[in-house]
Design a protein that fits this description.
This protein has about 325 residues and is of the alpha+beta class. It has three domains: about 5-145, no CATH class; about 160-190, no CATH class; about 235-335, no CATH class. Helix content is about 50%, strand content about 20%. The chain is built from eleven helices and ten strands. The chain has helices at about 40-50, 95-100, 140-145, 145-165, 175-195, 200-210, 215-260, 265-280, 280-290, 315-325, 330-335, and strands spanning about 5, 10, 20, 25, 35, 55-60, 70-80, 85-95, 110-115, 120-130. The strands form two sheets. Strands 1, 2, 3, 6, 7, 8, 9 and 10 form an eight-stranded mixed sheet that branches. Strands 4-5 form a two-stranded antiparallel sheet. Strand 4 (about 25) and strand 5 form a beta hairpin. Helix 7 packs antiparallel against helix 8. Mean pLDDT is about 75; it is low at about 135-150 and about 305-310.
Amino acid sequence: MKTFLLAILKEMSGAPAEFQVLPEGRIDVHGDEPAYLDEEAAGKIIAAYKARGNDMVIDYEHQSLADVQSPAAGWIKDFVWRGADGLWAVVEWTAKAAEYLKGREYRYFSPVMYVRASDRKVAQLVNVALTNNPAINNLRPIVAKFTEGLENQKKEDIMIQKLKTLLGLAADAGEEKVLEGITLLVSKVKALETAPQVIACKEVLEALGAKAEAGKEEVVQLVASLKAPADVAKTLSLEVAALRTKISSMEQADLVTLALKEGKTSPEELDKWGRDLALKSPEQFKQIVLSRPVGSVIPVTEIVVAKDQTVVADDIQLAVNKQMGIDEATFKKYNK
């Protein structure tokens, strides 16, 4: 709440036991806009006075606000609201001040107050002083006394303006609008904090067949279930490729063995190109080599076949044979 420090100057007659500190309604201020006092504002002044529990000093020339030696001229013992007659103070004067007032050596008193900028209502009564200075030059030390408070107010005003900018409010928006904006922002932040965590975009969730509020574990399981068939297919593909290689090797061995047995090729020819051809292109090997007459390269009588060779298949070979439908007799026949 923005406030301003103001002082007024009023003439006093004698040393009264009570006097009107501030009138009800409009208060004309020297060199400034008028201030206003109503029952509500007066009630706050009285409540603040009673809350302190101390008599309020009436000093000379506002010296108590200037951090200098400041003897009391009197003490305000109470404040009374008298409606249309304004705010009154019940006072107890010092002997010296009473003499000053009776001798008209002091003719004026000056209340100093804070006034709200929004409606120019009196917000706080700061001090009352006896003075003979109509120009109110004593305001300078009073302002110095409250420099820290005014600086804090300035910082607060700057902060409020920054909040208005962040909230997208007009520069002249009131404090209520700022509070409404902050409240709305806080509610949105809380809503985000309590909202379910977004795991994937709407389209991905729909593609997976998941609900919009699906959690992390559910989405991970769905993705894993889609990935599993691909992994299985890859594994099967590798196994099939291995079996094909194994079969090609077996077929190569069968073709080479048959060609040697029937004397249609020689070991030298096989080492140069025959084995490679039998592995990569069995059909061409059959056309080129196995189509030759028996014994055309090596007489059949010169081929020595080892006797009593026993071929024992290991577990891997047995598994391959089973997959390919090769019985034990056939395997032993071509793998001696």
